[in-house]
Specification:
It is a single chain. The chain has about 700 residues and is of the alpha+beta class. A hairpin with a 2-residue loop joins strand 18 (about 525) and strand 19. The protein is globular.
């Protein structure tokens, strides 16, 4: 018997269906020589300090640093986890071979390896590595199973990351809490959390200390085109007025006129961070909610694996692109020009050297139905249009640059014109995003006529008064980009791609880091802006050690973790470096002078804003629920009903259709778990001709409308 272990029940069901393991059992599916079981994400975790000795239960400054000689793992203390692990442990003992069907990424590898380690697995292990959950992808994955050994470095990197986070998080949090918390507050420190907070605090201080200054600029209008003086901004109105008088007394002359044709490159395919950035800019979605929406689309088989950090596709995917485009029925108008000729195979899209664990996020050949939530539809639309746009031609533009002078004062203006829209045609129907600088945008869009060098004529000079602007607060979009590049401001896509290896956090964990900062009340949100609270600012001010709060240094750790993945760096060396750092940090803080940390009560800012819809929680799997009648056996889902897995003896069954109305999974779940549904309408076959009412069970577990 071959044992397949997936990361969650819904994925296990998809795999079991493909393998023909259709007989539901308690905690697994069986059939065709396979058993398919599942975890619920993490079943195991690293042991806590008190597991290594009772003395560590209380937080004592002089017992730090806590450095176990060997890091152990334990089951997460939860009845459901313990029951599922017992099933996995038994199946591991009975099987001939294990197939690791965990999430195909570093975290997924770690989850599965810890469970197999805890279950003392000594059976041969194969690895299923797939980028989508479609039937075709699962079949292809099982036809190309890899030895578990191929992914050993991925596990070592995940394990090193977990140990690194434990060493720093446990020790630094206890250290700073005992030294500076004054028994009033837990001061939470984290390997990625703290440098992220430090970036927000730094920006907050720059904004708070910024002095707004007025300035004046000279402009002039010639042939309905606005020209700007190419000199430094003037600091006084008096100087500006003198300049204006000078302009009125001198003629306007064109010095040079140049039109350059250029191209705007296609946007890149989405990685997770890029998608979260775009969804935050366009719809105001938080990074965490975007991750939930895309995860749901992945599990519904509409998109490929989402937790990725590359914007490229594998070259082997090229033959499948046409088929995916043909299946995207809702986008046929946009896809038609591409399907009329061979799909271009550009190195900007297909490049094996740029693909990491997975390729960029793209649609699968299974188009979505109408039952997606509004948020899922919007996220899918972003992915679909981006996918189509990368195969369109580049956008051709012309840039016009005009230089002029009035007396001795140089002037210039520029304009941009789209000659051939290319990929921009995909977005033609969408509203143009509002620009933060409307005046600049207006000038950039101005139509520039043909000018002749040496021509002169009357002009209308004017003074423009402006104010200097403070740095902009971070939004989730700009913070995610800053985390990706370890705080460096990078607009160029190719340069950003190179800096990803030194980013802080991973695409899959950044959303969680931001949420943790909210929960700790170190940051708050005002409209779209992220603001460091007084507590967050004071915490960063308390930490004098740059190692803890430097994005660049944290980025170096990330680079080492990636090198461990590639087999270019020893996991033990990474651990030893962190142990040394934690030991030195502890000595420095313990011997240093204590500061008083004052807790600030943050005033809640009430403001009218659109509430982002809550993410729908995934319904429990029927196989996780006990029969409400016998209370001993699990339930199982058939083709027409849900019933007890011991139906012969127990007899409990609920049909999907009751009194002529088809019930949704949620309505059935309410009936089974709560004993009744909400008020329902649309019954067409009730014996007493009732058309609406609340369904519940009678004493014999028959369904009635009381």
């Amino acid at each position: 018997m071959k044992l397949c272990i997936a990361e969650k029940p819904s994925v296990a069901r998809d795999i079991a269906k493909v393998l023909g393991a259709n007989a539901p059992k308690q905690g697994y599916m069986e059939g065709n020589g396979y058993c398919v079981t599942w975890t619920f994400g993490h079943l195991c975790t690293l042991k806590e300090p008190h597991d290594y000795g009772p003395q560590y239960k209380s937080w004592n400054l002089f017992l730090l640093p806590i450095i176990p000689s060997n890091f152990g793992i334990k089951l997460i203390p939860n009845k459901g986890v313990e029951n599922q692990f017992k099933i996995i442990e038994r199946l591991v003992g009975e099987c001939d071979e294990v197939i690791n069907c965990g999430d195909a990424g570093q975290e997924g590898e770690l989850i599965q390896r810890w469970v197999l380690q805890k279950a003392k697995c000594n059976k041969p292990i194969q690895r299923l590595w797939i980028s989508s959950l479609t039937e075709e992808a699962i079949k292809e994955g099982f036809a190309n199973l890899k030895p578990a050994e191929d992914y050993k470095n991925l596990y070592l990197a995940g394990n090193a990351r977990a140990i690194g986070d434990w060493l720093l998080g446990i020790n630094a949090t206890r250290l700073f809490t005992k030294k500076f918390g004054g028994n009033k507050a837990v001061l939470s420190i984290g390997r990625v959390q703290t440098p992220t907070l430090a970036m927000l605090v730094q920006r907050q201080k720059e904004i708070d200390s910024f002095t707004i200054e007025e300035y004046w600029e000279l402009k002039t209008k010639y042939r309905d085109v606005i020209f700007n003086a190419a000199i430094d901004r003037l600091k006084t109105l008096e100087r500006a007025e003198k300049g204006l008088e000078y302009l009125k007394q001198n003629p306007f002359e064109i010095v040079s006129f140049e039109i350059k044709e250029g191209k705007e490159k296609n946007p890149r395919l989405f990685d997770l961070t890029g998608l979260q950035v775009e969804a935050n800019k366009r719809f105001g979605y938080s990074a965490e909610n975007t991750l939930n929406y895309i995860q749901s689309l992945y599990e519904k088989k509409h998109v490929t694996y989402p937790r990725v950090d590359t914007t490229y596709l594998s070259e082997s995917l090229y033959p499948k692109i046409e088929g995916i485009l043909r299946k995207m029925s809702f986008y046929q108008e946009l896809a038609a020009p591409l399907l009329a000729a061979p799909i271009p195979k550009s190195k900007a899209v297909f490049d094996d050297t740029k693909v990491t664990d997975h390729h960029a996020i793209i649609p699968t050949e299974i188009p979505p139905s109408q039952n997606l939530s509004r948020e899922e539809k919007l996220i899918y639309d972003l992915i679909a249009k981006r996918f189509i746009s990368v195969f369109y031609p580049e956008c051709k533009i012309s840039n016009t640059l005009v230089e002029a002078k009035v007396g001795t004062i140089p002037f210039k203006t520029s304009g941009k014109q789209i000659l051939e829209p290319g990929w921009r045609a995909v977005y033609a129907k969408e509203l143009k995003e509002e620009s933060n600088d409307k005046e600049k945008e207006k000038e950039e869009e101005q139509a520039i006529p043909e000018f002749t060098v040496g021509e002169t004529g009357p002009h209308d000079p004017l003074i423009h008064q402006g104010k200097t602007s403070p740095p902009k607060p971070y939004t989730e979009a700009t913070l995610l980009r800053a985390m990706e590049t370890a705080g460096k401001q990078v607009e160029d896509e190719e340069l950003r791609e190179l800096l990803k290896n030194n980013g802080i956090g991973r695409p899959s964990t950044r959303a969680n880091i931001i949420e943790t900062l909210f929960k700790r009340k170190y940051i708050e949100k005002k409209r779209k802006n992220l603001i460091a609270t007084q507590t967050g600012i004071q915490l960063i001010d308390t930490i004098e050690d740059e190692l803890l709060k430097s994005p660049e240094l944290t980025g170096e750790w990330e680079l080492k973790l990636r090198k461990i993945e590639k087999g270019e760096y020893e996991a033990n060396q990474f651990k030893e470096e962190l142990i040394q750092m934690v030991t030195e940090l502890t000595k420095k803080v313990v011997d240093g002078k204590a500061k008083v940390f004052t807790l600030h009560e943050e005033k809640e800012v009430k403001e009218k804003k659109k509430r982002e819809p809550a993410v729908k929680k995934e319904l429990q799997s029927w196989e996780e629920i006990k029969c409400p009648k016998c209370k001993e056996h699990q339930l199982m889902k058939g083709k027409t009903a849900v019933g007890c897995s011991d139906f012969k003896n127990c007899g409990f069954k609920v049909s999907f259709e009751i009194f002529g109305k088809k019930l949704s999974d949620k309505q059935l779940m309410d009936l089974v778990l709560k004993g009744k549904t909400s008020k329902l309408k649309g019954f067409s076959a009730h014996p007493e001709s009732l058309t609406e009412g609340v369904l519940s069970f009678n004493d014999q577990f028959g369904v009635i409308i009381p």
